[in-house]
Design brief:
It comes from Nonomuraea zeae. The chain is an alpha/beta fold and 314 residues long. It has helices spanning 23-33, 35-39, 53-58, 101-106, 165-182, 192-195, 207-218, 226-231, 244-255, 270-276, 282-295, 308-312, and strands at residues 64-66, 83-88, 107-108, 111-112, 118-120, 126-128, 150-155, 189-191. Bound molecules: zinc ion. Zinc ion binds next to loops.
Length: 314
């Protein structure tokens, strides 16, 4: 393709050498991020360019291609990794393993590349494209999945064609290895459509199934953990429900530090009474929403397959 010839041209942006968490870099983040820097001030721990990404990709066992110059490619360094966002390229429907490489690497009119850290070919080949920050999700509805806080994977797909199983296998494996590398639970793996209301991608992948498979890979493929086994039998808990399982939700929220004293201030017997209640009232739903936001889960206030694993995690 035409753009292949420009493969080795240096990309615009800040170079990795010299990145050392110095005041100079803090000023850099402040100047480019403004509001976001202040919002994330308490958890921000600046990272250098993520030059380990090719090694992480190789752990999947799938073939890896390092795009020339990837270690210094990015819109500045990657400030942090709190989440992973899965995309499809919406590229041409036919021909080639990863025809979208040039676009993902170099950008398109109106949006400079790199657009994501990884590309994923139809054969399961993983292209490592950038080690710095990429423009893959803005505006994000999740602070854990915006451009400054997450890694993007652009998988080749027209947006409607079936996914080859080998590509899906590589997709799940890459997400699992990234979770292991950055210490993230599978719940931090999101579809673009889950963290950006204007996006449809990646099409037709059930993300609950996808995350469940990633969780199994994270634990070493030893089969579902005890939490995953019991989660299958747990019901949805939503506003207005009255059941014993509501008490489980209350107990888990309390154990996770998500029940402030104000939550039970209005009860006669205080916390004990609050914990025994089998009623899913609006106060409980609000606490569930807070927990979901803290975990990077959609904050719908409903405890279901996406929330139970995080609540029960030991
Ligand atoms: Zn996308």
């Amino acid at each position: 393709m035409k753009a292949e010839a420009t493969e080795v041209l240096p990309r615009q942006g800040v170079r990795a050498p010299g990145f050392d968490r110095s005041p100079q870099w803090r000023d850099y983040f402040s100047s480019i991020e403004g509001r976001e820097t202040s919002r994330n001030a308490n958890r921000r721990c600046p990272m250098p360019y993520l030059t380990q990404l090719a090694d992480v990709a190789r752990r999947t066992g799938h073939p890896v291609t390092e795009s020339a110059g990837w270690k210094t490619r990015g819109h500045g360094p990657q400030p942090e990794v709190q989440g992973i966002v899965c995309h499809h390229t919406a590229g041409p429907p036919g021909g080639g393993d990863y025809p979208s490489l040039a676009v993902v690497r170099d950008g398109r009119p109106g949006l400079d590349g790199p657009l994501s850290h990884f590309g994923l070919g139809r054969s399961g080949r993983i292209h490592v494209i950038a080690a710095g920050r990429c423009w893959h999700n803005a505006p994000s509805t999740s602070p854990l999945h915006d451009n400054s806080s997450s890694i993007g994977i652009e998988a080749e797909n027209s947006g409607s064609q079936p996914w080859p199983e080998v590509q899906l296998d590589a997709y799940r494996s890459l997400c699992a290895e990234l979770c292991v590398e950055f210490g993230l639970p599978a719940s931090r793996v999101k579809a673009h459509r889950e963290v950006n209301t204007a996006k449809p991608d990646p099409h037709s992948i059930d993300m609950n199934d996808f995350r469940a498979a990633v969780a199994v890979l994270i634990t070493g493929g030893a089969g579902p953990s005890w939490t995953e086994e019991i989660v299958k039998d747990l019901p949805l808990i939503r506003l207005g429900d009255d059941s014993y399982d509501v008490k489980t939700v209350r107990g888990c929220l309390f154990a996770r530090g998500h029940v402030p004293p104000t939550a039970y201030a209005g009860t006669t017997a205080g916390l004990e009474e609050w914990l025994k209640s089998t009623s899913c009232d609006s106060g409980l739903v609000e606490l569930v929403r807070g927990f979901q936001r803290a975990e990077g889960i959609d904050d719908d206030g409903i405890v279901g397959p996406g929330t139970w694993p995080s609540l029960l995690r030991v």
